[in-house]
Amino acid sequence: MVGGFAPTVPNLLAVLYVAIFPAVIALYFWNRAVAQLGANRVSPFVHLMPVFGTAMAVIFLGEIPGLHHAVGIALILTGVYLASLRRAPR
């Protein structure tokens, strides 16, 4: 079969898992964070998705992290830190 997947029980459970956890639960917690802290304080953290994606690929898929991953993660964390700093009132 090209371009699809066989409708087996494990495949359907995988699709159900992806539909429930990332799509529903993560969105719920994201919306709670925005409601409690405000969009201005929460929005920089959306850039952490590649960091967590890289970490999960290393942990679950056995990917080997390279220098480009370390540089990218360092840049992302620096940007999130700088965006999270409170500015002094004028």
Keywords, separated by commas or semicolons:
mainly alpha; 4 helices; 71% helix; 0% strand
Order of helices and strands: HHHH
**Multimerization status:** single chain
Mean pLDDT: 86
Q: Over all CA atoms, what is the radius of gyration?
A: 18 Å
- The number of strands is 0
Count of helix runs: 4
Residue ranges: pLDDT <50 for 5 or more in a row?
A: none
Helix content: over 70%
User: Looking at the structure, what is the overall shape?
Assistant: flat
The secondary-structure class comes to mainly alpha
Please describe the biggest sheet, giving its number of strands, its sense, and whether it closes into a barrel: none
Distance between the termini: 63 Å
Classify the beta-strand content into a percent band.
under 5%
Describe this structure in words.
This protein has helices at 9-37, 39-42, 49-61, 67-84. It is mainly α and 90 residues long. The N and C termini lie far apart (63 Å).
Write the layout of secondary structure elements.
Blueprint: H1 9-37, H2 39-42, H3 49-61, H4 67-84
